[in-house]
Write a structure and sequence with these properties.
By secondary structure, the chain is an alpha/beta fold. The protein has 3 domains: 3-101, Rhodanese-like domain (Oxidized Rhodanese, domain 1); 113-334, 4-Layer Sandwich (Metallo-beta-lactamase, Chain A); 366-471, Oxidized Rhodanese, domain 1 (3-Layer(aba) Sandwich), CATH 3.40.250. 30% of the residues lie in helices and 22% in strands. The strands form 4 sheets. Strands 6-7-8-9-10-11 form a 6-stranded mixed β-sheet, covered by helices on one side. The radius of gyration is 27 Å and the shape is elongated.
Length: 479
Amino acid sequence: MSLKKVSRISCEQVYNIWKTEPELLQLFDLRSKSEFDSGHIPGASHIEVQSLRDQLMHLDQKLAVLITHDSAEEDIIKTCEKFNNYALMSHCHRWLELDHPLSGDGIKRTFERFDDLFKKGEKHKMNSDIIFHQLFESESSTYTYIIADKKTKEAAIIDPVIETVDRDVKLIEELGLKLIYALDTHIHADHITGAGELRKKLGIKTAVSAEAEVPCVDIGLEDGQELLLGDKTIKVIATPGHTNTCVTYAFEGMIFTGDALLIRGCGRTDFQQGSSEKLYHSVHEKLFKLPDETLIYPGHDYRGHTSSTIGTEKKFNARLSEKISLPEFKKIMSELKLANPKKIHEAVPANLACGKPQDARTLRPQVVDGTPEITVEDLFSHMNDVKNKKLKLIDVRRPEEYNGELGHVDGAELITLGPDLTSYLEKGDRSEEIVFICRSGGRSGTATVESQNLGYKFTINMAGGMIRWNEKKQPVVRN
């Protein structure tokens, strides 16, 4: 096959598509693994020539851009002779010559350009040629940000929350903005993202770290990625540690850090592949290398702060200041002993589905006279879910009944129907799956109705109560 007939795409063309519509491309780097690790285009995958055919067969509508040395092109073309969904990137060395971003070890070179980026950003902010809004969702204390190029009105939203999508859409319409991206800083455990709902309403692109492996997301992001917004650029900095999917977005002198760096604190590191060591390096070796005047906008705040600066956090951050060593930080994080976020079982699966709430119920109750009910047999078959805390049991009888003749179900918590139960429900997680238990099913039915009136979605009455439980000779506990 003549090399002249092969489809080619210039480095400049790849860069322009990579910044504006990266979901249209699949970048395959066929150089050696050591060359790939030393520096590659963010979002590119390293593959061997022998696996190229299989990759091309499963590309759907994407164009494969092949990155290789000139000397290896002939073998690659022979391998791909039956395919027409690929193009060779011409003059690959131009990516470096044009100083485009790199991932791998090459990210260090990318960071050398940040001084100019952030000085430029301060000038833009002073000239008011960007639009910026900070919004708040009170239940999870989440900040959502809208950023835009004032000239073109192209906008992005960072960390939208599903409950406040209508508010955000209204503001976007009032400002006359054209929303292009919904960007999440990580896979959240405390709220459900509004990204999928915004895509459904406005036809936008969603983006999150490629590490999350979310199949429904439009753009999987990697360290050094860039997204064009008007004539301005959002730059992606991978900052893992709170979770393995955390990224920070840099835009015009501001960084949006999610939970990686909070004001005078940071996100926890004890779940979702979190790592205290990775978080320390993300902050100290990346974020703290930015100019001191860089503005920090976090994903949450619980004490009324709205923003900070790199210089201020380097001095005063209680966990991550420059004075704190890695061993000290690891000790601090290991001693936090925090309870899991209330919505973790609901939020994480939903966010791995682009914000589509999942039906995470363990039990499938029947509705009797408007009240969801299960049988004794149903509950007994799910006692492992009680042990694993996927399912909560609340016994609403009086204390003397709880340990009386009928005993109680192992794992059931005593919260007596009345003021005690009402107080508990008013403070509780509305997405929690709860089975209420009493002597015969009457009081637990009342508790189920009360919980539903307070907004609980997955509360259930155990029909027949402890009388039926004992009749079926199920095990009981008496303390």
